[in-house]
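Practice record 12: protein with nicotinamide-adenine-dinucleotide.
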Amino acid sequence: MHPFYDLTGKVALVTGGGGDIGGASAMALARAGADVIIVDIRPEPGAERAAAVRALGRKSLVLIGNCADDAVVRDLADKAIAAFGHVDILVNVAGGGDPRWLWELERPDFDKIVANNLGSAWSWAHSLAPHMQAQGWGRIINTASISAKHGGGPPATVSKSAYAAAKAGVLGLTKGLAKELSPSITVNAVCPGLIHARGTKWITEGPEVAEILKTIPKGRVGQPDDVAAAVLFFASPGSDWITGESMDVNGGQYID
Ligand SMILES: NC(=O)c1ccc[n+]([C@@H]2O[C@H](COP(=O)([O-])OP(=O)(O)OC[C@H]3O[C@@H](n4cnc5c(N)ncnc54)[C@H](O)[C@@H]3O)[C@@H](O)[C@H]2O)c1
């Protein structure tokens, strides 16, 4: 393995690790040599992913809880540190879209979307960054979205303004943390476009996909591994001088 990508001896914690993008990211990190802690609100897929990590010869642990709840995150972070002694790489993937329009939401719904996508990333960084700073090395990778940049919306999509706002917040958090946590920790974000996943199958396998593909220069929807490759890059020793960045993983659908 090229030393740029060698994560031997590192411990990664992936929130939303039971899902498609989180799961692919967990496996990519494990293949690069990291032990991987899986955090998810759903026990079953989390356990399956942890078993897959162990099958690669790495250590794994499943932690179940709601990352939108700050007290839960603090408790899970303590458990992670107690079990492994250190967490070197935090990958914030937990979150998800919401297809409802502005007038279908009330303020508590908006707050929930923000807590799920943005508050969760803040709580995890707040809980684990002090440990990373104490050891002098760390990586934080946040999951934003193409919606953070183009606002979401039609054609068929799970993303509208509340989600776009939450994910745009993830980009601001990424830049701010990059400055606050330097030099020991790098903080970067991935911005996936349309990825084939359990929550997007109705689009990627639906009747509107042909129209959507006309807007994607690469001519296909993304796969979870397309995002995992970017996550692995930001987690790697080789990306040490890159912080506060966001990487578009969207097949060229939106370029800035
Ligand atoms: N699939 C896409 O097209 C796409 C595009 C852009 C961004 N994203 C973002 O990527 C991330 C992963 O998406 P995915 O498509 O793999 O979805 P997914 O539903 O397969 O994975 C999300 C995982 O996070 C878990 N989760 C959600 N909220 C949680 C919480 N509060 N606490 C703990 N676990 C929680 C879910 O149980 C699930 O396992 C999300 O943040 C999503 O917004 C996805």
